[in-house]
């Protein structure tokens, strides 16, 4: 299994941006296969929708670094690891701006970018970027169309209901050909159908350890993955060529045993070949995050 880790981006780690390059470089040296960012804009004082099925926003989300800058920093500091987003909230960004940023990062990394896109869940964040949240699904579809045109055509032109790219010469294309792989996060039926039609892979999440009364995360993942692959097959695509990258979100009381057990079970029971661990709730600084990287890799890959 390929094992990655989230970059220092949220919570106390966000107050130490000077450690991003060191973390990325040392995580690669320790054997990490991928490094990841997310996309948080703000933490509302009185959220209308909480995080992860709760009524609140984690205090760690009160501090967040820009995902594109963090990825670019990691790209410059590393040589081998893949660099991914889980996820960039695509409807927040005009596709031309998003395409330029992603193309730059893919070129900086020599074609190591994994583009993970989603729609987010916070109405207040949509209010802050002045985009109607009710349009998020349609805007994501248009964004996917516009990105494909930007990456594969020249001149580029795209005209949709929400986004427009006037006919333009775009000579700079990604290092990855025909373009970086695009992954989507999805749980609702309509979103799963979009994944099956349009994505190179799916981005599920497992919370570790499971909350009291919650389903077993790997059993739930196995069932969900069966549904996603069936939807891929219904679209006339090959499920065997469809990728899955699992995000493991350890809570503050998670142990290394919890994390490693989840990695092992995800591979054995669900067939997951790539997963990454987010140390946001377990590390207060880059050294603690790197210690977690080392311990997880040592336990998950015994000599």
Automatic annotation (TrEMBL):
Transmembrane segments: none annotated. Residues 13-265 form the Luciferase-like domain. It is an enzyme of class 1 (oxidoreductase). Keywords: Flavoprotein, FMN, Monooxygenase, Oxidoreductase. GO terms for molecular function: oxidoreductase activity. It comes from the Bacteria. Its EC number is 1.-.-.-. This is TIGR03619 family F420-dependent LLM class oxidoreductase.
